Amino acid sequence: xxxxxxxxxxxxxxxxxxxxxxxxxxxxxxxxxxxxxxxxxxxxxxxxxxxxxxxxxxxxxxxxxxxxxxxxxxxxxxxxx
Length: 81
Hints:
Mean pLDDT: 94
Number of strands: 0
Low-confidence stretches: none
Helix content: over 70%
Strand content: under 5%
Number of domains: 1
Distance between the termini: 26 Å
Structural class: mainly alpha
Order of helices and strands: HHH
Oligomer: single chain
């Protein structure tokens, strides 16, 4: 996936997050349904941001950004800042 493709996926996920909140406000979904999907969205967003950072770092150091890979949720969610 290209940087622009990753950025588009991030944009799509943020849009879905907003849509979920709107659906909850209009009682189209339950709070439990919203929370379950939001957790999934947050993980996927973190994976996308991680992949984008990997690609940028590889490019900065003269490596092929296409060798960056999506890391599993456990790895990405376990980062300590």
